[in-house]
Amino acid sequence: MVTGRAHLAALERPRPGAAPAPSRLDALRLDKNECADPAFARRLHQAVAGAITPEDLTAYPETDLLYHKLADRLGLGVDSLYLAAGSDGAIRAVFQAFVAPGDRVLVPEPTFAMYPVYCDMFQAERIPLPYGADLTVSLDAAREALAQGARVWVLPNPDSPTGAAHTPKVLRSAVEAAARAGTIVLVDEAYYPYFPHTALGWVGEFDNLVVVQTFSKAWALAGHRVGFAAAAPGLTRFLHAQKPMYEIGQASVKAACVALDHESDMRASVARTLAGKAWFAAALRERGLRVREGHANFLLVDFGPRREAVVGRLQAAGVLFKASFPHAALAGYARISAAPRPVLEPVLACIDEAMAE
After folding, report:
1. Both ends of the chain: CA-CA distance in Å?
2. Whole-model pTM?
């Protein structure tokens, strides 16, 4: 019998079922931390739809356009950038370019689901750095692991599903410690600018730093799958060495270029979303519920003894959210994506109805 590589036999990834899965598009999608601001999404959609031509559908991608526009906006050279299919694609490229079988990779736990997957896929030894009950990771423990040798240190900032983030001072000290140990630091900034701090300005200083961002969240382009990695040219040459023929499609190139022309709209959307998150968190606390706001575009809430009733009511109303987590640090919590207040008001009404039953 013909088989694939032995280590992949135990790695299960989602595949299509016997019938198409129910569409999420008609639901209130607060489960995957997409942009949930309909006003910005409509405005951007109109601009993107008006810009995409028949040639954008029939021609192979011309990614140089986006490379140069993005480089100008970030104040980086184009040789410091690598485009990818979302931040996930950029993360995979880092593993493929730098991680060999048996390499040690430091990964917070819990974290973005694909980090453990890529460790298994590329046969790395995953060194977990667990979050404590206060949802912080001990950087002292990370430094001890660095002393034993590590190829890559994964540092999402903020992280998901915890919402935890490091201050610029703490993050910089981590990058410096990793540089002394010869370890690459992957700073995953998928939630920028919901969390306003970025390490992009350090790319020119550190030859062990890779910063990853995405257009999928604040930029409202999750469906176009556009992300990028920024690093010193000595690192990006390895990312480009493993890239496919084209990093992303031409329609996605055009959509991202249009989005960059709407940065003020994006930042207004971020402000509306964070204001809605603060209102929602305060309302939940007024109802006696335990809330962790975190630093991204979602919050964690513990519905307490009414959990089953609340979860059932929200699901019946077509609200998608993450109902629970298997990790001890998040026991009892559900995760709900943030949105402007008008989007969250009916969600709160559902919670009130369930708690009053």
Report:
1. 58
2. 0.96
